[in-house]
Each structure stands twice: as C-alpha cells, then as structure tokens.
C-alpha cells in the first residue's frame, strides 16, 4: 500500500478518533467540571453545616463548663440541696439555655439527679444510655465529651464534663451532662446560611449502609430536579450513625448544549482535514517518498558515497542534508570506533579496576586476576566462578541487581551502570561500581555475552555520606536543617496515607539579644532551645532549625492533645530554664482533608505562629522600651531623674526651635534612650570614679554604635537609631564615631548633645562634682561653633535665662 493511501487512511482514522476522543473528553470534562463544582459546592455547604453544629456544640460545652465550675454545683453534687434546685433548675433556665435535659452524676458515674424539659424522661435516658453511660468505648468518668446523638428521628447535642470548685483546687466529685435538641429554629438558620434543605436520619434506617458517601445524584421531587447529597457524621461514640441529606435545585440545559457542540465540531473537523490532505500531499508526502526511496537504495547498495538533492529550505530539506552528512561520516566513524576500542582495552589493562567477561548462555565468567584476589573469589573453573560472583553480592543489593540484570539479559538494556556492595572474603564491605555493555546477542535479541569493568568506590561513598550528612545538618545546633526537612515534606506529599503535624517555633527577641549581648549569646540561646526540644520530643519526631530563630518539628501519628501538650511542655521548659529564661512562640498545622499537602500544613502552622506573635506583639512592644530603660538605670550611673531632666529641657528647646509634633515625640524618646548603648559597656568602666584610660575611653565610645544596633533591631526605636549613633558627634567634625560635621549631624542629635552636656555639668557624678550654673553657661558659649551648634546654643541659653531654676533642677 502506497504511502499516500496510508497517510490518507491514517489521517482519516486519526481525525475520527480525535473527534470521538475530543467529544468524549469534552463531555466528561464539561460534565465532570459541573460535577466537580457540584461536589465542591456540596462540600462547602456541609462544611458550613458542620461548622454551625460545631459552634452549637462548643457553645453548649462552654456553658456546661461554666456550670460545672460553680461552687454551688460542686456543693449540690455532695448534698443535693433544694436551694440549688429552686435557684438554678427551673423551666426558665432550660428555656434560656435551650436545653432538653440535665443530669448530675457522682464520682462513681451514677445519676444522682436529673431533670427534663419538653422531652420525656424515657427519651432523655435512652439518649444518655446510647451516647455515654452504655458505651464500652467511653468511660463514664471521662472528664469531657461532646457530640451528636440520634433518637426518635431527632438530632441531639450532648455534652459532659467533670465538676469541681471554681478555684480548680478541689478534687473532682462528679460530672454534669447537658442535652440540647437540634430544633427547627437551628435547621432554618442552616437553610438560610447554606442555601440547601437539610434532612437527617439514623443510619439504621438506610438499606445499604456501606454505599453512603458524599456524592451528588439528580432526583425529582415535585416535578423539579434536585441534586441530592448524603454524608455520614460520627456520633459521640465515634460511630457512623447519622446521615445528613442535602437537596439543591438543578437545571437541565447540559444535554442540549453537548449535542450542538458535537455537530458543530464534526463539521469544522471535516473541513480542516480535507484542506490539510491537499497541502500535505503536495508539500510533504511526495518529498518524503523521494527521501525514503533514496535511503532504501543506500541500504541495499551499502554505498555511502551516494547523495540526495532536495528542494526547499524546510525540515525535510534539512533531513536530507543531515543524511548526506551522516553518510560522509560513517566510514571515519567506524575507523574511530576501532581506535577507541583499542584505547579502552589498553586503559583497562593499565588501571587497578577489574574486568569481567560473562557468558550468559554457558553461565561462565572470566574475572581479571587482580580483582579476583582483591575480593577473594574462588572457583576451580569459570562456571564455579560465575556462581561465586553472585554469592559475594550483599543481600540488600542482590534483589535490585537481579531486576536490573533481567533487563540486560533479555536484551532490553544494552548499556548499564550499577553501584552495589560486595562482601569480601575477609568479611569487610566494599562498594563497587560495575559498568558494562552487551556485546553479543542471539537472533531473538537475548544477550549472550556481557563485558564490564569493576571499580572500588568505597572511599567515594563514604565521602558522599559525610557530605550528605553535613548538607542536611545545622552546624550550630546539630539539628536537621531546612533542606533535610523539605526533602521529608516531599516524601510526605507522595504518601497519600500520611498522618502528621508540623510545629513551628520562633524565639522571641533573638535579634535584640544579638544586638545587645552579641551573636555569641544568641547562639547560646539557640543551642539551649535545641537541647530542650530534643530532650522533650520523642525519637519519632524530626526536629530542624528552619531559619535564624525558627524551628520546625515534624510529628507523625499523634493527636492534637498530644501536640498541645508537647508545645506547652517545650514552652514551659524554655521559660523556666535555670541558666536562661527564653520566650518562644509556637504554631502548628495538621494534615487533613483541608490541608492535604505539606505546604498547606506548613502555611497553617506559620499562620498560627504569627497570629500568636501578633497577639503578643502589642504587650511586647509596650514592655520593650521600659525594659531597656530599667536595664540602663540598673547598670549605669545615670538616674531616672537625669533622663527626665533631659526630656524636659530638650522638649522645651524643641518647641522653641519650632519642631513639628512628630519630631518633638522623637526628641522625647531620644532624650530617654540616647545612652542605651551603655548597656553593652562593662560596669567597671561605667562606674569608675576616676579618669578613664585611653583603652577604657575607646571602649566607652563604642556605646554610640551599640545603641544604634539596639535601636535598629528594635522596631519601636528604629526611627531614632541614626540620632542615637550621632549624639556624640561635634559640630566642628571632631566627634565620634563618624566625625560628622555641621548639619551632617542630625538636628535631634545636636539638641541632645547640648542638653545632655548641660545636665552632666550641673549635676554631681561618681567621677566629678557639680559645676556652678554661671560657669556652665560660659562653657556652652565657649564651645559654641566647636562642640555645639551655635544657633541651638544661643536659643538654649535664652531658654535657661527665661526658665525658673526649680523647673529643671
């Protein structure tokens, strides 16, 4: 059959198949999309319903807990006094709380008092027996239980908790149970919120219980189509006993749309095929036939000197040119291959690698003598050597190699390279790299002879293992690093049956610690936190240092109570550590149907972490400045009175200079914290009564840079960090640390420099007495234009002359 006919038949069949497949794909994708949207809508609606029921359950439990911690309730369990009944168990109470029944149990789990409202006692007792008291999987003395129960085709919420005194110091003396009905009011609210009609029934009333699942089926009610979906909920006993049914009204326009699409699509495809065949025959098929005929001629004659001429500049032309070039290089390539084979043989003989020649058909093997002695192969002949070779392979590698050699022997793989372990005669383990090629095959393509080289790569493997360990470990803490944890997350995403939690922890204030006390102290905190986490977490948990001050813990197959307990234990251990008191915030995420991959779980953990830090952030910010001031006062000779005087005078001077309100606020904060860097200066230098030495003065001058780092790493102070850095710069450029000159010095720094110098000179210090005010004014004038800005000095002196002495003394 000619290629033209084949192309026509193939094209026609391809188009027909394409049309059918496209129609089918469209049908299923279109209606699959609709079905997916319906399923997503159903899932969202059920999530809304479950959220509403969950909120009702939570509200009921919160009310129950409040009652259970009343001292009156605690006493009532003990003495069943009438006063409590009259005061708290009236019908109004049941109406206000929307309850159907209350039960009081003693510490033995026996009912000592009960009351129902608008529900007969038999029904309420059946609810109680079915849900809590008559359930082998639930201990009647369990401290807390909340869940759903079906009884008489009605849905109830039941909640139980233990009773104790309000201070939680008394021993638990019993428990309290509330029963609430999911009534028509709540169902109407669900209908209003979710937009569906909700029904529920007991699973016992369903004929085929195993077929109930969250799906959507079109059914007709009152001559209208509805999408009916069912979902099974777990009751308080943990059993699938409650069936929820949702009804959503539908339309019927899908079949009409699909029929019109198929007809239109078929017409368009037929037109395109007809046009394509005309052009394909003229521009492609004829030229391909010419090229095919030429290649057949080369195959028959084995004459590589022949060439083909092809018109055009398209891919077919390039293919013909490539064919010509290939023919011209075949002879030289054959010569090169022969030379290469000779070189390879020489190289193998000159190295310490082994050489293996295996005859698959006769099961005989040749191994080079050096390699045979190195490994300790034994065998009187080549057949015994064949058997002995496989016996030296490590058992853990043997199955993998059998699988690989199966493909080699059956001719499916020509070249191969494998790494595996062998057990030497001495018992030591050696890593081997075997690279080989099938050099002879039978008529059916099965391998007859295989040659390969054997290299000892033990040292390389050890080095790779060391590199791998270092690349997946954090050098400071010894924990796993982020790269290792991301690899674990990839494995988790491949395992669809995963059940895990991700905990993220963040050390509070580590940046401030690094700025104040240095990175050495920050590293000590990181190391201490790592030790605490490793000590508390079980061996099954994987702990990693995620970032600078962040840790990530991967915990498998544990419930949320365990995770909460683990987080609290780590936090308490950090806060109560003997050598360090460390504040650390946590957030966690759990793998479930909403967060089905590690990225989602990680995002949830990170969101909860920063939500926690956000809630704590305000109080932390308000405490930051006070904490810094307290530390400064405790360590430095400067007193609170000194900073208040600086603040008062600088504010007055700022107003006189016409500063805006925001600048006045910055000036007030700067007046309090301009010397905050002295926190990082040794106390023996700060408190030295005499003159500082040259070395001590160099250390003292570092307090400007230290203060800058503290402020710059504290969000509340970052906006005045440059002013703190420059508050000892001199107007003539001889100050420190950057020798700024004139107006290069921030305005607020120039103001503080003058006011601070004035207050230091007019008040007593450990290293000097106070100077007379008139002397100080003369000093200010003398230093004007040198140490101080002359304009500001002039205004400051006017301010001092106008002020009453008592206002700043």
UniProtKB/TrEMBL annotation:
Enzyme class name: hydrolase
EC number(s) from the headed UniProt entry: 3.1.4.52
Transmembrane segments: 7-33, 256-280
Domain PAC intervals: 416-469
Family matches, as Pfam families: CHASE4 (PF05228), GGDEF (PF00990), HD_5 (PF13487), PAS_3 (PF08447)
Residue span(s) of domain HAMP: 282-335
GGDEF domain residues: 498-626
A GO term for molecular function: cyclic-guanylate-specific phosphodiesterase activity
Residue ranges constituting the HD-GYP domain according to the UniProt record: 617-809
Domain of life assignment: Bacteria
GO biological process: signal transduction
InterPro entries from the UniProt entry: CHASE4, GGDEF_dom, HAMP_dom, HD/PDEase_dom, HD_GYP_dom, Nucleotide_cyclase, PAC, PAS
Gene Ontology cellular-component annotations: membrane
Keywords, alphabetical: Hydrolase, Membrane, Transmembrane, Transmembrane helix
PANTHER family attached to this UniProt entry: CYCLIC DI-GMP PHOSPHODIESTERASE PA4108 (PTHR43155:SF2), CYCLIC DI-GMP PHOSPHODIESTERASE PA4108-RELATED (PTHR43155)
Listed NCBIfam families: GGDEF, sensory_box
Protein name as annotated: Cyclic di-GMP phosphodiesterase response regulator RpfG
Organism, as annotated: Clostridium vincentii
UniProt lineage: Bacteria, Bacillati, Bacillota, Clostridia, Eubacteriales
């Amino acid at each position: 059959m000619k290629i033209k006919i084949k192309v026509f038949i193939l094209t026609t069949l391809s188009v027909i198949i394409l049309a059918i497949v496209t129609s089918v794909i469209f049908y299923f994708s279109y209606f699959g999309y609709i079905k997916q949207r319906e399923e997503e809508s159903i899932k969202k609606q059920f999530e809304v319903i479950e959220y509403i029921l969950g909120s009702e359950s939570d509200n009921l439990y919160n009310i129950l807990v409040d009652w259970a911690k009343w001292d009156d309730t605690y006493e009532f369990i003990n003495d069943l006094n009438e006063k409590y009944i009259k005061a708290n168990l009236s019908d109004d109470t049941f109406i206000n709380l929307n309850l159907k029944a209350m039960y009081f149990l003693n510490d033995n789990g026996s009912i000592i008092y009960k009351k129902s409202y608008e529900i007969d006692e038999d029904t309420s007792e059946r609810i109680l027996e079915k849900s809590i008291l008559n359930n082998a999987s639930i201990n009647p003395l369990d401290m807390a239980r909340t869940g759903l129960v079906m009884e008489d085709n009605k849905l109830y919420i039941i909640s139980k908790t233990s009773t104790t005194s309000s201070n939680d110091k008394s021993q638990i003396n019993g428990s309290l149970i509330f029963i609430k009905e999911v009534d028509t009011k709540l169902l109407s609210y669900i209908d209003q919120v979710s937009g569906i009609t909700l029904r529920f029934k007991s699973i016992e009333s369903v004929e085929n219980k195993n077929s109930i699942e969250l799906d959507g089926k079109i059914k007709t009610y009152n001559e209208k189509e509805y999408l009916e979906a069912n979902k099974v909920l777990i009751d308080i006993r943990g059993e699938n006993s409650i069936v929820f049914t949702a009804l959503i009204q539908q339309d019927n326009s899908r079949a009409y749309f699909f029929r019109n699409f198929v007809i239109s699509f078929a017409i368009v495809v037929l037109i395109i095929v007809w046009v394509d065949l005309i052009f394909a025959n003229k521009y492609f098929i004829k030229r391909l036939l010419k090229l095919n005929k030429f290649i057949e001629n080369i195959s028959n004659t084995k004459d590589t000197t022949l060439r083909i001429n092809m018109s055009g500049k398209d891919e077919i032309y390039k293919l013909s040119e490539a064919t010509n070039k290939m023919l011209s290089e075949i002879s030289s390539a054959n010569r090169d291959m022969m030379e290469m084979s000779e070189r390879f043989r020489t190289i193998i003989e000159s190295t310490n690698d082994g050489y293996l020649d295996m005859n698959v058909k006769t099961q005989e093997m040749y191994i080079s003598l050096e390699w045979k002695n190195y490994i300790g192969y034994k065998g009187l002949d080549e057949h015994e050597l064949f058997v002995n070779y496989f016996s030296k392979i490590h058992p853990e590698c043997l199955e993998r190699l059998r699988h690989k050699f199966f493909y080699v022997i059956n001719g499916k793989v020509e070249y191969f390279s494998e790494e595996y372990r062998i057990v030497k005669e001495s018992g030591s383990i050696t890593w081997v790299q075997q690279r080989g090629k099938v050099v002879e095959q039978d008529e059916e393509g099965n391998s007859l002879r295989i040659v390969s080289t054997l290299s000892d790569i033990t040292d390389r493997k050890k080095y790779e293992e060391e590199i791998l360990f270092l690349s997946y470990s954090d050098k400071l803490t010894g924990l796993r690093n982020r790269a290792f944890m991301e690899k674990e997350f990839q494995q988790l995403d491949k395992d669809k049956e995963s059940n895990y939690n991700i905990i993220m922890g963040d050390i509070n204030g580590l940046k401030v610690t690094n700025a104040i006390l240095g990175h050495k102290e920050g590293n000590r905190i990181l190391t201490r936190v790592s030790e605490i986490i490793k000590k508390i977490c079980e061996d099954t948990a994987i702990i990693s240092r995620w970032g600078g001050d962040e840790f990530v813990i991967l915990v498998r197959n544990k419930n949320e109570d365990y995770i909460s307990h683990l987080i609290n234990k780590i936090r308490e251990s950090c806060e109560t550590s003997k050598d360090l008191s460390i504040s650390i915030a946590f957030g966690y995420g759990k793998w479930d149907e909403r967060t089905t991959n590690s990225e989602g779980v990680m995002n949830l953990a990170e969101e909860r972490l920063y939500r926690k830090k956000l809630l704590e952030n305000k109080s932390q910010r308000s405490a930051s400045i006070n904490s810094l001031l307290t530390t400064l006062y405790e360590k430095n000779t400067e007193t609170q009175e000194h900073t208040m005087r600086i603040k008062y005078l600088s504010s007055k001077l700022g107003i006189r200079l016409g500063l805006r309100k925001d600048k006045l606020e910055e000036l007030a904060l700067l007046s309090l914290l301009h010397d905050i860097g002295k926190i990082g200066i040794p106390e023996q230098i700060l408190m030295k009564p005499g003159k500082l030495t040259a070395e001590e003065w160099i250390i003292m001058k570092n307090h400007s840079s230290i203060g800058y780092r503290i402020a710059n790493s504290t969000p509340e102070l970052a906006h005045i960090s440059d002013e703190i850095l420059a508050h000892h710069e001199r107007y003539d450029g001889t100050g420190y640390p950057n020798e700024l000159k004139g107006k290069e010095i921030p305005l607020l720094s120039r103001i503080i420099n003058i006011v601070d110098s004035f207050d230091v000179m007019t008040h007593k210090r450990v290293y000097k007495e106070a100077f007379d005010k008139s002397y100080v004014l003369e000093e200010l004038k003398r230093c004007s234009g040198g140490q101080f800005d002359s304009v500001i000095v002039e205004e400051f002196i006017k301010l001092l002359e106008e002020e009453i002495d008592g206002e700043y003394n």
